[in-house]
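Two proteins follow. First one:
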Amino acid sequence: MLKFDVKRKINTLRDILVGKVPDPKAQVEQITIAMIYKFMDDIDLEGMEFGRLGTRAFFRDDFEKYAWANIMQSENSGQQRAVLYAEGIDKMAMNPHLPQLFRDVFRGAYVPYRDPDTLNMFLKEISEFSYDNSEDLGNAFEYLLSIMGSQGDAGQFRTPRHIIDMIVEIVDPKKNESVLDPACGSAGFLISSYKHILENNKDKNGKSTLTTDDRKHLSINFAGYDISPDMVRLSRVNMYLHKFTKPQISEYDTLTSEEKWNDSYDVILANPPFMTPKGGIIPHNRYRVQAKRAEVLFVDYIAEHLNPTGRAGIIVPEGIVFQSANAYKQLREYLVNDNLLYAVISLPAGVFNPYSGVKTSVLLFDKTLAKNREEILFVKMNNDGYDLGAQRREIKQNDIPDIINIVKAFINGEDVSYSPLVTLAKKEEIKKHDYILVGERYKVVTVVNSVWPMVELGEVCEVFNGSTPSRTEKVYWEKGNIPWFTIDDVRTQGRIITYTNQHITEQAVTETSVKILPANTVLLCCTASVGEFAISKIELTTNQQFNGLVIKTKNLLPEFLFYCASQFKSELFRLSGETAFKFVSIRYVKQIKIPLPPLSIQQEIVTEIESYQKIIDGARQVVDNYRLTIKVDPSWEIIKLGDICENLDSKRIPITSSERNQGEYPYYGASGIVDYVDGYIFDEDLLLLSEDGANLITRVTPIAFSITGKVWVNNHAHVLKFQEKDTQKYIEFYINQMDISNYVTGAAQPKLSQGNLTRISIPLPPLETQQQIVAQITEEMAIVEQNKRLIEIFEQKIEDKMKEVWGE
């Protein structure tokens, strides 16, 4: 877990360096080198205290003067410190007293500035780090990467220590087993495994039972790979700091190299990179699953490199467990049918904050266990002991101890179905659902074909009208501090209300009919937007469009009433009559009936629906926040759109709606298909671009879209033909992300004329780069569409659940 103090120190160091070392990557280099330098001195001093009779091991003879403690002596001036530190950095690669891994760290290192004041401040801040807290090295380095942005671009995120420790505790590496992390980063999994083995090899007095041979085998049995030389350097040092004098960490491209392909391990633990480079990865042909996605290949690699009785724990992005693309499905089929996977732990989105809010799961492999089980265990983690915001503050709720116990009990053959965190699914059932590894898919419905007593709302709720204080009375509105709720609050934050956009004063409450409604009031719209509903998590007032349903019995949960409100719309429409202005009075609202199961059943229903809602919310974040983005390289040639395509506008033929004969061929307009007609005028790959309409400015929908095959196009869309299909698609994506307002004329009716269309400036990369961009964006958009489909599926599940409650 990234500590606030570490974050503060790093930010201070960056502030010190920024004037002299503006490049973030160079800042990472300078801070990391300095921390390692300081840690070496800490190790040296520790060695002097324990067994070397006051003699340094690293900084001695001609190098003694470069020891950190000597550089930082108070009698040294800032200039003297600057000279000693710069000389030390320059010469450390030649220090014969250092282990080779430290000499490698300093090879080529140098201080790019000589300002003594800056360097003095920098060195004093570095002195605050200590070998006693060696995990700070990994935390600090990866926090720097997150600031640079390279971490997210590479799909690499700092794995929280408590999540690593949970996985290690479950997988349970033994002292005689070989352990690999094929994407080791700062070696967190390897170090946690080492600590786990130490802890599990003690006698009753707490003394280690590991022999000299055991420790020797540990140093040989632990291995890590990473493609980044910076991370290899960091992990080697981190391993050294944890008593691995010759760490087996290799700079190695796990996904494309075959050099280590024949190596296998008893235990593999990993949090592999999630992102794939543009154009995909080009792997060799020894993988079981043919894919170009990094996360698919890493899981395949791990499965292929386990020994016959091997075990693994892998953190994977959520797409692995449900995406429908062939490679993902083929991978899941392999994991299930070949008896590798025995459990999936669903982690909450936000576990990787502050680096990323990405949703992840943990796949657990055990070749022996999976072979003997017909079921796969799904465990849902709701809380990991920290809130899911950017600061990750510690909270009381923590499912990790329970999850460890659940998985261990499952491994031991015990019944774990009692836990609300658990879903068990037979492999045959998983096969029927395209091997989707989402536990909610296989949950047994708690309430089936049950009919509960029906009660009127008036029996279980007080129903209050909302009201609007006079707008002309400023004393009711100015500097108000009492939340006042309207339909706009639903539109801005959804149906769970935690704040309001407007406030009224206490005077408005005392002098008008406005009533303060308590938290957990269900808000039901009975005027105009009839059927809209929400639940307040705060005290508030509301306008006359809404009624407040305040529960007056202990036999009804507010959340259950809230979900019941989703079923009120048709009844409210019936009660409001066929008038233009819909209104339902309180008298009729009180007569609406709801089913009233026992409280325990209500809670089960609420828990199930909330689990679906969390999936919907996560998928909606993807859909709402995705923005098509093409990062332009300044070296790309700038061309005019008219120079790279043929304009076919002259072939367009508009047909009025009264003259159209219905048929099978799409009839296109400015924003897509308008109708279907019985003829066509184009039969080829084309790009259509809106010629007129407000959408040219508002951009609610894409203004450029590719079409193919037999179609008819009216005169509201420009028709462009390209020689290269990838260029067409690149232009489509680029125009949909760019601001074209400078090319649009007309205020009342915006228009993109053919002349202005041809003058649109386009940065055009080489064809190969176009293809890579098109492939990447196409894949991103496919993922967005999958998330839209996920929203539809789980909204339907909620709808089906509530219909079931009603006995439909």
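Second one, unrelated to the first:
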Amino acid sequence: MSFKLLTSKVLLAAILGIWLGMLLGTGNALGQITLDGDFDHGSLDEANSSVSGSLVSLAGRDNFNSGDWKWLYFSADNVNGLQPTFQIDDDFATGGSSLNNHEMVYSYDQQTWQFFDNNARSSGAGTFTFSNNAPFSQNEVYVAYGLPYSNGRSVAHTAQAATSPWVSPTVSGNASLVIGQSPGGIDDLGRPIASRDMYGYKITDSSATGPKQKIAVMGGVHANETVANYTLEGLVDFLLSDDLEAGRLRSLAEIYVYPMVNPDGRHAGYNRSTVQRPNHDPNRFWDSPSYGGMSDVKVVGDALLADTGGDVDYFIDFHSTVNGKDGHYGYVHPDFQADPFWQTLLQLEPSVNTQSASLVSLTGQKFGRDELNAEFTMTFETQFIAGENIDRFHDLGANFGRSLEQTFRVAADVNFDRVLDSQDWLQFIAGAETDLSGLTAVEAYAAGDLDGDGVNSIEDLSIFKNAYIAEYGIASFAALLVPVPEPTTMALLLLALAARPRSSRKQFDSYPTHRRI
């Protein structure tokens, strides 16, 4: 048989196979799209969803919000080369107007998400419709109301954090950072939801022995408020990084992290509540010792009290809000709105605004004030904003860390005891002869590299001088110059520093020098 004839037969067989597959419903024909919401954080009323030609009609689950949906996340299979239109009713829990200007997202790998090209609400028809301008390029696509954040991702991120030398278990946790288990139960679709590990851990530089601020942060109280977890994730990633500000913050603070308060509701794809108490808002029962019978809230609440001794300086509860509200905002009681941390964050994030909290309901932030005795407590609401992707929320979280560091830092405090004094001066001049190669950014700072350019130079001396004069006056700084210990003399110090290369990097003189002992 000739090669040409064999090739023709193979090609014919392939065409017949594709045609037969289409007839049997296993091919790529329109109308053969299948939907699935049965996975971690998935949410779809499959029984009332359907596919007709190129139109995929979706039904949202109404747990907690009777008759209304507030979270949507599913996979669509057999879509390669197809360009379907998805449609869902606009019976959204906070009103159909919350869907105005909203954009749904899709992903092929549940990691990288893109916004649909076309998103439109028809108030007259009572629908929200979304589609793309080009066909899908893979056979399976994941579709969601907003950027999903599964309980599995939280577990994986905690496991990654556990490998950091800056992370340790809390008093209430074990070596695996587990502080307790969720209750589990049966969800609104009749599926068994298994009990899950719940986590908490501490981030700090244990070698820094000076006084430290206590900061407690948590997320995942409401099942569908996913971008809040990305913001908290960004904060943790910053805290564990080699960034100079992160290192200084670890030296100045202990940060207690509780990443997922409601793992059952998150896994089950709930709109807002827990599986154990589907008709109760978990952010209305933060009241020890009973916590309204909310077992998962009790695990975290009791851990917070035990781990911190019921005494923190800052408490931040990360939440999310829907489209059409007020952008990203802090829900802060008027007594706390002038706090230097919050004012610094507003400078770093000009688009963030402030809303006044009353602290009447038994919310997490009220628990922070009344039971953790926080000097500052807040709920931070991130919004599902069209075009803002994961990187945006990671950056937002990092700016929380930078704001805390800039609030706690005392300029030129190289020994991290929260006071600028003669001991810092002695350590600074000793560091003039230190080889900074191989040191971390924080170690180099402690050796006198105040501008972070990798060398001790006359610029660093200028930063120290300005900070000391601002704190005590020029006469006090002049007094430091007299008792310089041998073998280093002031002349040799100045010559050594002046010989180092000058840096063009931004100085830190203008940073806040608030001291909250």
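SUMMARY FIELD: Residues 4 and 28 are 29 Å apart (CA to CA). The two ends are 90 Å apart (CA to CA).
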